[in-house]
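Regression test case RT-17, inverse folding.

Input:
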């Protein structure tokens, strides 16, 4: 496997007005845009052929992963080599390609837009709203599971009952490996009383190319969109031993959600606290700030 697909065509309405002209994927997590962390994760797992499914007003994403010769020259003249290296890093990560999703017809449609580029190969899908801790080799593990079992592989994380309606949830059966399950059914954003389990799909998938044929026949589902979950459900229910099987990796590590304002802010703070170059100054300030807020009324 060498190919990763990253859908970035969403409008980012939860972050308006900031995302009126700036893609939500370019919002910074400290000093790097969120999308760069996702590409770095793909590359760390050995996927250096990255296809982004874009939409209108996403040009700055392409610019970020391109060379910036004038900026690089200005930094070189100033002998600011640390910043020069950081600027060059994004353009040297991977071979990054782009295709436009003409209209917002759902995640399944976005993945279908990658068919010509992916061809008859298994590929990863990474959603930009989910960041996985760099110390967690989730994607590598999913690729290993694909090699062992074939078919498609999804990442599953246990959530609280009141959160199941925010995710696609899986009906699962154990295998001989404690972190691997067979997926027998999937339900997109079920009510708590209809959820087959508390194991929810997070934004990492390994897809068999058979998924394209299923997506072409998948009608619009929840929200009038073509759902990737519905196509994977069809494969899971078929239970075939080839491309149709679906397995899950039970992920118990650290995941950061940047899809809404509160979780985005939490992510920025956590990343800052984990940065050796920032933590020594930031953590004492944060502690003092919280103590001051707790001791008296805010201004």
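Golden output:
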């Amino acid at each position: 496997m060498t190919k990763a697909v990253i859908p970035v065509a969403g409008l980012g309405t939860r972050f308006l007005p900031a995302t009126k002209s700036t893609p939500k994927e370019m919002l910074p997590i400290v000093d790097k845009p969120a999308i760069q962390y996702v590409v770095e994760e793909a590359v760390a797992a050995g996927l250096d052929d990255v296809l982004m499914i874009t939409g209108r007003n996403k040009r700055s994403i392409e610019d970020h992963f391109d060379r910036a010769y004038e900026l690089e020259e200005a930094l070189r003249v100033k002998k600011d080599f640390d910043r020069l290296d950081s600027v060059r890093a994004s353009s040297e990560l991977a071979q990054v390609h782009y295709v436009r999703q003409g209209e917002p017809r759902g995640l399944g449609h976005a993945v279908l837009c990658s068919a010509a580029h992916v061809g008859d190969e298994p590929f990863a899908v990474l959603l930009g709203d989910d960041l996985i801790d760099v110390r967690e080799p989730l994607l590598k593990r999913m690729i290993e599971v694909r090699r062992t079992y074939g078919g498609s592989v999804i990442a599953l994380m246990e959530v609280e009952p009141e959160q199941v309606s925010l995710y696609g949830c899986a009906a699962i059966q154990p295998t001989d490996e404690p972190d691997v399950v067979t997926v027998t059914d999937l339900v997109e954003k079920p009510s708590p009383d209809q959820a087959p389990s508390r194991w929810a799909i997070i934004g990492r998938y390994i897809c068999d190319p058979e998924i394209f044929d299923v997506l072409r026949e998948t009608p619009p589902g929840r929200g009038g969109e073509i759902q990737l979950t519905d196509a994977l459900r069809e494969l899971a229910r078929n239970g075939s031993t080839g491309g149709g099987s679906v397995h899950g990796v039970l992920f118990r590590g650290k995941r950061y959600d940047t899809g809404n304002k509160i979780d985005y802010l939490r992510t920025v703070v956590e990343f800052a606290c984990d940065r050796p170059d920032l933590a020594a100054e930031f953590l004492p300030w944060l502690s003092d700030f919280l103590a001051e807020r707790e001791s008296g009324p805010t201004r």
